[in-house]
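ok here's MFS transporter:
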Amino acid sequence: MASPAPTPRPPRDTTGLRARLTIPVLAYCGILMAVMQTVVVPLLPDLPRLTGASASTVSWMVTASLLAGAVLTPVLGRAGDMYGKRRVLLLSLALMTAGSVICALTADIALLITARALQGAAVSVVPLSISILRDELPPERRNGAVALMSSTVGIGAALGLPAAALIIQYANWHAMFWVTAGLGTTGVLLIRWAVPESPVRESGRFDVTGALGLAAGLVCLLLAVSQGGEWGWGSAPILGLFAGAALVLALWWRHQLRAQRPLVDLRLVSRPRVGLSHVAALLTGFAFYANTLVTAQLVQAPEASGYGLGLSIVQTGLVLLPSGVVMLLLSPVSARISAARGPRITLALGAAVIAAGYGVRIADSRSLVMIMVGATVVSVGTTLAYSALPALILRAVPATQTASANGVNVLMRTVGQAVSSAAVAAVLVHHTSLVDGLPLPTLHGYLVAFSVAAAVALAGSAVALLIPGDPAPENEPVRTEGARSVADGTVKEDA
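and the structure:
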C-alpha cells in the first residue's frame, strides 16, 4: 500500500545564530581532525626515550592512525547515510577525543598506539560534514562551503605542526594531548548545538560482511605499503600481505556486487564521473603528500649536507604555515571557478598547479624563500583540486549516498598518501650520502622525488579532463515532515 504523500516541512531558519555557525563549526572540526593527524610528528624523535620502546614500534603511532582512518572512513560514511550523519559525526569526534585523553594519561606504547587508532576515526569528519552541507545548504551557498571544508585538511596540517612543536618545547608532552582533548570536547558540544540532523537517509540493513571484508583487505594493503621499506619489499610478510589484500578485496568485490544493500555501490563507482573522480583523488593525494614529507626533511637537514638549512621543528612548522593560510584564503576562489567552469576544470587546473609548484622546487631547493614559494604553489593547487573532488561526487551520486561516496573518495586520497610516503622513502633511501658519518638523502634524491610527484600530478590533471562534462546538480534532498529520506523520487517513512 502506498504511503500517503508527506507534508513538506518548513525550510530551516538560516538567519539564527546556530544556522549561521553551522559552516564555521564543521570547518573547525575538519581543521581539528587534520591537527590531530600531525600533532604526533614532533614527538616521534623523543618517543623512544619517553616510552622505552624502539623507533620502529613508535612509528606505529602514525601507522595505526593511518590504517584506522582508511578502514573507518568508508564504513562510517555508509553508517552516516543510513543512521544519521550528525550522529555518526559525533561518534567520530568522541572517539578522537577519547584517544587524546588516553594519550594524555599514559606513557605505555601499546595504549598510545591503541589511542592513535581511535583518533583515526576522525578522518571521516570531512566526508560526513560535506554530506551534511549538501543536505542543509541551498545550491548557491554549497560550493563555497564544500570548498572550505575540503581545504581544512591542509589548513589543519599546516597549523598542527608548529602548534604541537611549541607546546612540546615549553610544556610536558602530555599537555599537547590534553589540549587536543579539550578542543575535541568543544567540537562535540558545538556540533550538538549548531548542526542539525539531516532527514536524508537510506533504509536497509548495514552490510557488516562488506565492512569486515573491506577492513581486512585495506589493513593488508596499507600495512604492506607503509611497512615495505622497513621490512623489505621482497620479504615474505610483505608479499603475503599483498597476496592477502588481493584475495580478500577480490572476494569483497564479488560480495558487493551481489549484496542487496552493499557497503560501497560498485555499480555507482563504475560510472566514469564517479570512478574517474576516485582515480584523480588517488593521484592528487600522492602528489600533495610528497610536498609535506619532503619539505620538512629538506629544511631540517644540516647545513653540512650542502643544501639543508638546519631548521628546528618549530621553524619548519612556520615554513609550512603560509601554505595553510593560502588554502584558507583560496577556498572561495576555487568555489567560484567550479561555479563558472565546472569542478572537473577546477580539478584539472589544481593538479596542473601542483605540478608547477614542484617545477619551482626542482629549479631551486636551496633558498628558503624559493622553498616556501614552491611549497605554497603546491598548496594552491591542492586547494583547487581538493575543493573540486567532493563537488564532483555531490553532482554524481544520489543524496542518500553522499557520505559513503565521499568517504570512498577520502579513502582514495589516503591510499595515495600512503603510496606517496612509501615512494618518497624508497627514492630518498636510494639516493643517500654520508654527512658527518650519518647517511642523509642527497639533493638529487629530493629532486627525483619532486619529479615523480610532478608527473603524478600531471597524470591527475589528465584524468580530470577525461571526466564527463558536469551535469546540473541532481537528486537534491527533499525535506519532509516525518520522512526518513527522500531520494530519486521515493519517500521512506520513519518506522
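+1. Residues 82 and 322 are 39 Å apart (CA to CA).
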